[in-house]
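Quick one, tokens below:
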């Protein structure tokens, strides 16, 4: 059985990063096959970085490197997060196409590839993660590696027209075809990628995921990422969850909770969501004083200007909505710019009558799946899901909305709040089954089977 070699920007070398689903899935694969995990240490250094640090934990060898200030800025903050992230989320208007950032992106991809190649042995399979490393396959090949390389994109792949807005799209597409198996979150993303190859690169779609392009045969498929479904359900009835439920219960005082949980990111559609909630209080006066909306949104990438602007916009909107609708004994909209422990989140999901997952674009969105698993089967809440989240392909039995249509979102929240118990249970049972069947282990296995990695 060959080893699995993982490459991602952040690794689970830091035990606190191990709680997330992805870290768990990759970790499980590595401990079962034996393997290595390469990435960034999380440190930024002045001057040249020292030699990579080796850490061994439970049979997994981590090799992590520091970034220089120039790498962290050009590769991470600029090209990855101010070019690829906005363009792949259909926000070309927010992209900053600098002169030198792609150079930094190329150099970091090459430097990490050069760090990996000497460790590779015959029989190994490489699994590269996410938009930071779109060029990694090409550099591994140039470094002499001809064994299998898989790639999984956690964010959307945009439509060909939008992808073409990226000045370096040709180089990126060609480099991506050095991977053997390319995994996308949804059929929609997969089809965008394949359409680009067929229309712009003379690729031939041979069916069943196979594509001939640039003299190679590669596979592109949808592998929707899942969560650790059963264990998340257990968290929702644990002590820590109950404490969180009782704390928010005191605040609610019998009112119904409408909940949002997101990283503070412009892709998540938070201003549009706040406005829709305002519209609901406006158009459905019976909800006033009876319903409270709480949005949990820890700031992320706060060194990037667009994220700072979003924070200001949300602060203003929250103030305005509370000013317009609030009363002496009622706060219509609460917005908590901090993160909570997963166990506490599970409790909040469980007590919520409605969860709003309304991104303008999202690769998958795991909050939607976590909310489903946290519900009480005797009295499940209702998930309202954006048609632009990858999760909408799997969770089509829930209430699906266009997040730009504030009136319709407002109406849907009202409909969810009024939904009879029987309908809520029927819908929830279908969602639960999907989330349990297509959990994180299912996702990992499906991908690694296609990459032909033998795991036990
Ligand atoms: P993200 O954009 O980070 O992930 P998401 O899928 O929703 O988005 O995952 C967020 C995770 O962070 C969830 O597990 C959630 O519980 C947690 N989280 C969110 N807000 C939190 C808060 N306030 N406090 C504590 N925890 C919080 C990227 C892509 C997604 C894709 C995932 C996985 O953008 O589309 O689903 O990767 O592939």
């Amino acid at each position: 059985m060959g080893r699995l070699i993982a490459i991602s920007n952040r690794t689970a070398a830091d035990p606190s990063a191990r709680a997330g689903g992805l870290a768990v899935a990759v970790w499980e694969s590595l401990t079962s096959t034996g393997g290595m995990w390469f990435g960034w240490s999380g440190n930024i250094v002045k001057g040249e970085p020292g030699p990579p640090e080796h850490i061994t934990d439970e049979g997994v060898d981590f090799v992590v490197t520091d970034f220089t200030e120039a790498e962290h800025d050009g590769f991470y903050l600029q090209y990855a997060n101010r070019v690829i992230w906005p363009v792949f989320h259909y926000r070309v208007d927010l992209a900053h196409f600098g002169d030198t950032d792609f150079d930094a992106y190329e150099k970091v991809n090459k430097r990490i590839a050069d760090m990996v190649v000497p460790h590779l042995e015959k029989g190994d399979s490489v699994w590269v993660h996410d938009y930071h490393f779109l060029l990694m396959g090409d550099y591994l090949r140039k470094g002499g590696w001809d064994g299998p390389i898989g790639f999984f994109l956690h964010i959307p792949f945009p439509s060909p027209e939008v992808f073409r807005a990226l000045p370096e799209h040709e180089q990126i597409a060609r480099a991506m075809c050095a991977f053997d198996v390319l995994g996308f979150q949804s059929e929609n993303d997969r089809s965008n990628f394949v359409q680009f190859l067929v229309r712009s690169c003379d690729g031939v779609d041979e069916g069943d995921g196979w594509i001939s392009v640039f003299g190679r045969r590669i596979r592109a498929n949808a592998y929707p990422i899942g969560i650790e479904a059963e264990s998340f359900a257990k968290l929702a009835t644990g002590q820590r969850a109950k404490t969180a439920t009782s704390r928010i219960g005191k605040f609610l005082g019998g009112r119904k909770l409408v909940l949002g949980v997101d990283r503070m990111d412009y892709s998540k559609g938070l201003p549009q969501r706040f406005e829709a909630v305002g519209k609901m209080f406006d158009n459905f006066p019976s909800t006033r004083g009876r319903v409270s909306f709480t949005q949990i949104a820890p700031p992320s990438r706060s060194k990037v200007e667009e994220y700072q602007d979003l924070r200001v916009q949300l602060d203003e909107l929250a103030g305005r909505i509370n000013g317009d609708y609030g009363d002496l004994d009622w706060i219509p909209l609460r917005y908590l710019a901090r993160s909570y422990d997963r166990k506490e989140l599970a409790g909040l999901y469980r007590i919520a009558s409605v969860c709003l997952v309304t991104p303008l674009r999202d690769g998958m969105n795991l909050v939607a799946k976590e909310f489903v698993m946290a519900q009480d089967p005797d009295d499940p809440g209702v998930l309202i899901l954006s048609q632009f989240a990858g999760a909408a392909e799997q969770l089509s039995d829930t209430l699906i909305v266009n997040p730009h249509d504030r009136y319709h979102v407002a109406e849907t929240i009202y409909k969810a709040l009024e939904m009879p118990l029987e309908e809520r249970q029927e819908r929830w049972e279908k969602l639960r089954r999907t989330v349990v069947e297509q959990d994180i282990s299912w996702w990992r296995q499906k991908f690694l089977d296609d990459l032909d990695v033998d795991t036990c």
